[in-house]
Amino acid sequence: MAARTRTRPRSRASRGKPFFKHFRMDSSAVAVAVLAVIGLAALFWFVDVLAALADGRDWLLRTFGFGLVIIAGLSVAGGIAVSKAQYEHGAALARRTTGALALALFLWGALGLNEAGWRVGGVDFRDATLGGQIGQDLVSGFLGKVAWLSLGIIAAAMLAPGTTLSLARNAPRWAETAWERRWPHRALAGAGRFLVFAFRRPGGGTATAEPVIGGALRERLEGAAGPAQEEPPVVFRPSIDPAQPSSPLGTGAAVQFRPPGDQPAAGEVAECATPEMPPDGELVEDAEPQQLGLDLGGQTNGWQLPAIEILNAPQVSASRKHDNAARAQLIVDTLASFGVDATVVEVNEGPTVTQFGVEPGWEVRYREQQIRDEGGHSIIGGDGRPRSERIEVSRTRVRVNKITALQNDLALALAAPSLRIEAPVPGRAIVGIEVPNDSATVVTMRHVMETKEFQDMVRKTKLALALGKGVSGVPVVADLAKMPHLLIAGATGSGKSVCMNAVIAGIMMNASPSDVRFVMIDPKRVELTAYGHIPHLAFSEVIVDMDKVVGTLQAVVSEMEARYKKFAAMAVRNIETYNRHPRVLKKLAYWVIIIDELADLMMAAPFEVEKLLCRLAQLARATGIHLVVATQRPSVDVVTGLIKANFPTRIAFAVTSMTDSRTILDMGGAEKLLGRGDMLYMPTDAAKPIRIQGVYVSDAEVERLVEFWTDARFRELAPETADDLLTQALVEQNGGGDLSIEEGDPIVGRARGLALQHRHVSPSLFQRRLKVGYVKASKLVDILEDEGILGPRGEGESREVLQTASAEEPS
User: Fold this and answer.
1) I need a surface site. Which of 200, 227, 229, 489 has the fewest CB within 10 A?
2) DSSP 192-256
3) Which domains does the chain possess?
């Protein structure tokens, strides 16, 4: 029962009197005191009655300065405290009195730091500070200023202890956040641009001898000085709520560059003019922030990164219906019933499964030994038999395979649809039994991106990936540059496409188009087409036409070779060293190649696709080109041994058989996954895969993110695409000719005659004999199939010739 609060009993005289009477009396007393102080001030400042009184007034002002107002304020505060009987609370009155005195001295010292051109009576405050001689003495010297600052801290601690303690605790975190968001850098850059802007003459140049910052600034803002501005101004627009899907999703102030002479619209404020802008609106990537205008979101080229609020907020975990303690005891009892000694030493509850850490016990062997007396004779018990005792002969650990062999029995006892046993857990002396939860918790991308692990990763790389949460609830993040390539496999509906969206969205949240470019290949035409207009694309479109896939990969190989030539010219080894080189004027962006369905590519052109993918996987890492390849059919004809050897980092979602799991991971386990984002992550530095519940990125989040990057304010900043490189690669792929085949083209007759001389025909035969590219050879096969000369596709790319062989040679 809570203790009752004791209050001071009211006197008989005050009983029954309403509260407003006491309040009116106190207010009257305070009003009289304030009027007296005002009258005294008027007497000192404005009335010269007697010379003696004027001399005394000047001495007071010269000695105390405006500290007289502080003394008057302390007097009024003391009167109020006495009228309210604050003396009955001794400790509180002492604390508040100490705080009030410290605050008064702090304010008095602040007055002592200021000199003004005021004159009252015979006192000139240029000689005597606003705080008088006392205020000046309070802040004299270094030690005096330290003591003055200490008085401010003491006053805050005494008068507002709770607020002061909260500020002291949160100040380091706020400082770290400000440093991460580059607020100090932007403040210094803004101050520098303000000074440059203020000192610029109206007609151009910089003021050298006119210290009229305010006048120059006022003239420029009023537009009354000189000709029109040559530089496009930076216009601030209010931000729009990112929660609305149709909004441009600007966070903070959006920056837009206007052409010269275009005035801001109504409601917009011209903040400042950029000192120098490159021609045609182009931006130099490695220029200083002072040369490029405002530094927004940590970018130096005008880009602004989206705020974390653009993603869905973390969801509250669903309540669990199971009892982990009861399930742990059930595991121990089930193992004991089969003669296996084990103990559950830890329980790690994750979003999808709960891992029970089982420590194997001991297998102890005993033997019976008779008890003998000192003479060596057996001791007879009460039942007439010799007495004996059990003696331990040996003690060995329970073998791990005895626990793993009982997997199905444990699933039956726990009424679980499936179990996965990790024996042993890497780096731990336990066996992990992973039991599915009754309900899975959705792991949002924002929740993982707000963790310390991901923030530390973002500081190191622009290719940070938020993968999900492990079985113990710990966030799992990775660096794509360290992987350096990623292979994703899983059955339909297991979460593969969501993982691809999470990879793309995670990079777009932390990297601008000048940092990372995407090359997206989507044979299914529905998964990646939402990103078709983002400025991050290296080419101007998402590649969906199978005829362009080989040419696209060849264009990426050409980009890789061109980068190696640049590295050789600068005598550097990789993209990080190249971008830091002092002679480099334009930094290279990372390229991320996204391939949504590898099986379709391998069916269309297995030889070319495998050759180009392996070449990129072997050589492209140093040039900043990384591959993210996904497939829903991880068979050996799709994920070949050569491809798998060059993709050391892999992610396996739920698959249909252990054979598919072995194809992607070289071990079983993926066939026991639960689906819906449940995956096994095999990093390069791990001996066994890690079970993760992948992050979920909804279609609405992708739509908001795409709308942010395709907003009109970024249109002038969009970098150039590499379409010329793609066009050149497509032309070279088809033997230097046109990709199209018109009616009556002679090459069709040559292909027809060549086909009639063989029993089976493939596009590769036309490539070798007719000297054409793969795309054109495939079109020739389709034309001959429509004419009835070739049969339908069978195993591989070989087609059966249906008509009788002709004797004529192709022209």
Assistant:
1) 227
2) HHHHHHHHB-TTSSB-SS---HHHHHHHHHHT-SSS--SSPEEEEE----TTSTTS----S-EEE
3) 21-178 (no CATH), 181-304 (no CATH), 324-370+386-436 (3.30.980.40), 445-717 (3.40.50.300), 735-800 (1.10.10.10)
